[in-house]
Amino acid sequence: MSKQDSSFAIRRLHSLLGVIPLGVFLIQHLLVNHTATRSEEAFNAASEFMGNLPFVLFLEIFIIYIPILFHGIYGIYIAFTAKYNVGHYSTYRNWMFLLQRISGVIAFIFIAIHVYQTRVQVFFGEEVNFDMVHQIVTNPAWLVFYIIGIIATVYHFANGLWSFMVTWGFTQSDKSQRVMSYVTGVVFVVVSFIGIQAILAFI
């Protein structure tokens, strides 16, 4: 396999992991958090259920953390080596390309901190429950950080979904790509609303 073919294969894998499993996990995670809008008890029950799944540590390591590390680290490499054309060709898609890279860096930092504040703390005897998240986001600075992080992560997923459809050959025509732009725009708005509504429920 040539260097060019190898690079293309890695980019396809990077794109795939951004949707499956990471995109699926993102939506599932936000939906679990959204149970906080019903009640503290509802969130604690949902969190306990997820935490007690069979082989949960194995699932987290191989389905979430390893894909996140690969997708994040390779994504940062792309972000800092990509050639941007916004200054010369200020088209909608060029701006989306730039924002995809910026949102990816923000999302990677946000996820790393979020994992430390929640999952890593479990190993130090903390319990992932409503009070844990409440203690974090009642600090206005952390609340703003979480809102920015959620929006950046959801945007990165939604726009990455558009790229995934192109990279994997599902949308090749201009019309199909334009339609997909509208679809992913709706995904961004809906999932962002769910995420922000969820985080505000912890205040």
Helices and strands in order:
Blueprint: H1 3-19, H2 22-34, H3 40-51, H4 56-81, H5 92-122, H6 130-137, H7 140-167, H8 174-200
Helix pairs in contact: 1-4, 1-7, 2-8, 4-5, 5-7, 7-8
Would you write up a description of this structure?
The chain has 203 residues and is an all-alpha fold. The chain has helices at residues 3-19, 22-34, 40-51, 56-81, 92-122, 130-137, 140-167, 174-200. It has one domain (3-201): 3 helical TM bundles of succinate and fumarate reductases. It contains eight helices and no strands. The longest helix is centred in the middle third of the chain and has 31 residues, at 92-122. It is globular and about 50 Å long.
Order of helices and strands: HHHHHHHH
- CATH architecture designation: Up-down Bundle
Overall mean pLDDT score?
91
Shape: globular
Regions with pLDDT < 50 over 5+ consecutive residues?
none
Count up the domains: 1
How widely separated are the two ends? 53 Å
Text of the CATH class: Mainly Alpha
Tell me the strand percentage band. under 5%
Q: And the CATH topology?
A: 3 helical TM bundles of succinate and fumarate reductases
Number of E-state strands: 0
Number of helices: 8
Structural class label: mainly alpha
CATH superfamily: Fumarate reductase/succinate dehydrogenase, transmembrane subunit
Radius of gyration, whole Å: 18 Å
Major sheet description: none
The helix content, as a percent range, equals: over 70%
